[in-house]
Amino acid sequence: MKFTNSMFDDIKNSMKPTAETVYKDMLKFESGKTYLLRLVPNLDQPKKSLYHYYHHSWTSLATNKFVTAICPTTFGESCPICSHAIKTFRSGTNEEKEKNKLINRKENWLANAYVVSDPTKLENAGKVKILRYGRELAKIIDEAINGEDASEYGPKIFDVRNGCTLRVKCEARSNAQNKKYLVTYASSKFVSASPLEVENIDDIHNNIFTLEEVSKPSSAPDLQRLLEQHYFCSVDAVQNAEEDEDENVVAAKTVKKQFSNDIENVFSGVEDAKDVVENKNDNSLDDLDEELRGILEKY
Predict the structure, then answer these.
(1) What is the pLDDT of residues 220-266, one digit of tens each?
(2) Does residue 107 have a pLDDT over 70?
(3) How many CB atoms lie within 10 A of CB 78?
């Protein structure tokens, strides 16, 4: 086999930051547009066809750049950022609680998607890309898998050739109080099954992304350093951050620890919600999540 320029390009591209490369493979949605996708299953490991995770993000107070990291609560482990938020929530000053609102904790999912139509980036058509979505699309997909729509759709939503297309409809949210929530996907839906002309179905299945590797989890020490560098602006920590070429993404191995019920989902600096959250059953993760979502969405 002869070494070619394309092989060299592959080597060169492999040296780029992983997050940057992956970001280019994520679908970008715009308000007022409709996207047609077909979900692509992981045939070798079907349980990994969808990836559900929590992540923290905020604009660095040291560098003014966006920072993000997977929250270890995704894996049932303790998280220093959550621990700090809860301590502040329970005993911090009003100023500390207000500052606490700068840090977000969001819930997202990832899926591989074969692009039938992409009005934002036409060249994506016919390619496998990463669909990153939140609770609105998650509800629609879950209904098709386990809910009231399962009898109509079910396994057909993962049949690329003869299954159902997911029509992602992006609409402006008229009552949005925050620019981050200007788009709603509530009108999105799966359409009836129909054949799709694809040249080689095996190529589609062989070109899926390993979703759990898109954003690698962080260790507890890494998350603590992230907090020190970009939230508390520790002088030493900031100097160390400047030496890190990839300071916008924290990616490291996870640390296996017992998940603490005390920090399960209490992540907010909203003082008037304290009694509501703390009166919840500590073992009720779903109830706490729902309560917390209601709190966070006010801001």
Answers:
(1) 999 999 999 999 998 664 455 445 434 433 333 332 222 233 333 33
(2) yes
(3) 17
Please, what are the domains in the chain? 24-296 (3.90.198.10)
In angstroms, how far is the first alpha carbon of the chain from the final one? 58
If you ran DSSP here, which 8-state letter would residue 39 be given? E
The pTM of the full predicted model, rounded to 2 decimals, is 0.72
Residue 36 neighbours by CB under 8 Å, 6+ apart:
115, 116, 117, 165, 166, 167, 168
Is the pLDDT confidence value at 283 over 50? Answer: no
111 in Cβ contact with 211 (< 8 Å): yes
Q: In angstroms, rounded to a whole number, what is the distance separating the alpha carbons of residues 166 and 216?
A: 27
Residue that is written with structure tokens 């008037």 in the block = 272
Q: Tokens representing 17? A: 């930051």
All residues at 6 or more sequence positions from 70 whose CB lies less than 8 Å from its CB, including other chains: 53, 54, 55, 215, 216, 217, 218
> What integer is the mean pLDDT of 40-58?
96
pLDDT in tens, 170-215: 999 876 555 555 889 999 999 999 999 998 999 999 999 999 998 8
Strands 166-169 and 171-172: unpaired
**Computed from CA positions of residues 253, 67, 24, 124, in that sequence, does the dihedral angle turn out positive or negative?**
positive
- Can you list the alpha helix ranges (DSSP code H) found in the chain? 5-14, 18-24, 80-91, 94-100, 135-145, 201-206, 220-230, 235-242, 274-278, 285-296
